[in-house]
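Hi C.,

You asked whether I'd gotten around to modeling the 276-residue construct. I have! Everything is below, sequence then structure, no commentary in between.
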Amino acid sequence: MHKMKKLFFPSIIFCCVFYSLGCSDNNRTQEQPNIIYVLADDMAPYVYVENNLVTKVPDSTTVNTGKYSWWREGPTSKDFIHEQVTPNFFRRAIALINQQAGKESPFFLYLALPSPHTPILPTDEWQGKSNLNPYGDFVMMIDNYMGQLLRAVELAGIEENTLVIFTCDNGCSPAAKIDELIEKGHYPGYIYRGHKADIFEGGHRVPFIAKWPKKINKGTSCDETICTTDLIATCAEIVGYSLSDNEGRSTAGIPQQNDPTDKEWKHINFIKQNTD
């Protein structure tokens, strides 16, 4: 196990459910980060792209017409197995954490997940686990993988000064078969009306979870309205990087080791809008 390094700036791991999928690490070189991504899991071509090159040229055509598991017909490479895309990116992310933990400088890892976006593809061991439907199983699978990633951070000895953020870009999608979930007592939008693609709050209010043991007290929360588009400036302020005028329009002040009952804590904005 690596010993905890005495870093002033934290390592940052940003995990987000987005439409496209990516995994990047800023320590490959300063000028050329390691970036692996796919365009989408349900729209062709189905290939991995690593540092602007496809890892394998498509040599077949695949399609899935299942109720939950569907993806559009299109060219597919041999190394692109739809059911293994999410597990593959978590494996790569955990490997990068272990690799970077042995270095003296902090790192930035951006893990943009395709799941639980369509195609809804829980692996065999998770099918039926939620007692809801395949979407519920898929979410449980992702939760388990996030647990593995956090465990990797802990075992690497860098948990105390590593900021991990987990969020997503939309509310629950109709592809989850929301009526089925509600019939079984699960409300994916909680008390809010609407879903992904709606103008209602259920389409835009999303979870935002930040873990940074050295700076953020366990169990604290903030009621300020924030947006994921602010995160570039949030991260820049945390690591002491000065943004140019055309980069990032907001700055951050994450509550750090404050008593949640302290009046001053209540006035700390998680995201403070730049008024320039």
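If it helps when you're writing up: Residues 134-155 form the longest helix (22 residues).

Thanks,
B.
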